[in-house]
Amino acid sequence: MTNSKKTNIQTTASADDSPPILSSWKQLYYLVLIAHAIIIGIFYFFSVYYS
Length: 51
Known about the structure:
- Helices cover about 50% and strands about 0% of the residues.
- It has one helix spanning about 25-50.
- The mean pLDDT is about 85.
């Protein structure tokens, strides 16, 4: 005999699906992009300064 239990997977975003630190995912993505730009700028500065 086969046990046929189905799992209920929710595929749509709900109102409770908010980012952990900012009020929207768009702001979090901008924060990540800005952080990457700052890190790239720091690495570029160090590579030019110490070359």
